[in-house]
Write a structure and sequence with these properties.
Radius of gyration: 17 Å
Distance between the termini: 43 Å
Number of helices: 2
Structural class: mainly beta
Shape: globular
Strand content: over 45%
Oligomer: single chain
Largest sheet: 15 strands, antiparallel
Length: 252
């Protein structure tokens, strides 16, 4: 079911982008957004594929913020960038761009949120689209910021309306427990969260967020419909310029 180019980047890239995006909200409290940078290592369990990803949130002079993600596997690359603002403690996406390059599978998706006109316009696979806005509508990176804000607020079940490519979909999550997670940056006491899918769905997604570091994403595991297992793990990060350091791992 999967060709070699898919294994090289298409699924790992989209999965990695969709996964790492969550860490943006790890730097947020109810009053403000905080700039951050983070890097992750990625691997596929059945195939010797390794990749890296970086994620950052930066303030703009006009009061908006830019959330950026970049990932690479083999000779392929992908990037996502969202421009957003915080309005009355609500995340408000303004624009979103996704670009994938390499291995003959290049693609660009753009979204522009015109809240006054009540419409999201954009282009996906070179086709234009238009969708109506609705309260709380997010894009594929800002929803993860909302997820971590909700975890910080103590919620255990969360759902979000998201503009995914050229459609609006509902993403649902729930807290399933806590676990001590070991990363290259040390060990972290983490909350375990799973993506809620249909009962017969074969895809599984589990994420772990560091409780003592504003719910920074430290690990993600995903099993695809074909049984392929992907994982990303925190390498290093800074919150508001300060390094994220976990408990040192004890050696035998």
């Amino acid at each position: 079911m999967i060709d070699s180019s898919s294994l090289s980047f298409r699924r790992p890239g989209r999965w990695l982008a969709a996964a790492v995006l969550a860490l943006g909200s790890s730097l947020i409290n109810a009053q403000e957004l905080v700039p951050f940078t983070a890097s992750y290592a990625a691997d596929m369990k059945k195939i010797p594929v390794n990749g890296e990803a970086t994620h950052s949130l930066q303030a703009n002079p006009d009061g908006t913020w830019t959330l950026s993600f970049h990932a690479g596997m083999f000779v392929a690359r992908l990037s996502e960038e969202s421009k957003l603002r915080l309005d009355n403690d609500q995340l408000v996406p303004l624009s979103y761009r996704y670009e994938r390059k390499g291995l003959g599978r290049g693609r660009v998706t753009t979204q522009t949120f015109d809240w006054e006109a009540g419409v999201v316009t954009g282009e996906h696979k070179k086709e234009s689209f238009s969708l109506p806005t609705e309260p709380g509508l997010l894009d594929r990176t800002t929803y993860q910021m909302a997820l971590q804000r909700d975890l910080m607020a103590g919620k255990t079940e969360m759902s979000y309306r998201v503009v995914d490519e050229d459609e609006i979909e509902e993403y649902r999550f729930r807290v399933t427990g806590e676990k001590r997670v070991t990363t290259r940056a040390g060990q972290f006491d983490a909350v375990e969260v799973e993506r809620i899918r249909e009962p017969d769905a074969k895809r599984e997604t589990t994420l772990w967020f560091a409780k003592d570091w504003q719910y920074l994403l430290v690990r993600l595991s995903q099993v695809e419909t074909d049984g392929q297992h992907y994982q990303i793990m925190l390498k290093e990060a800074t919150l508001d310029g300060e390094p994220v350091i976990g408990t040192p791992v004890k050696s035998d």
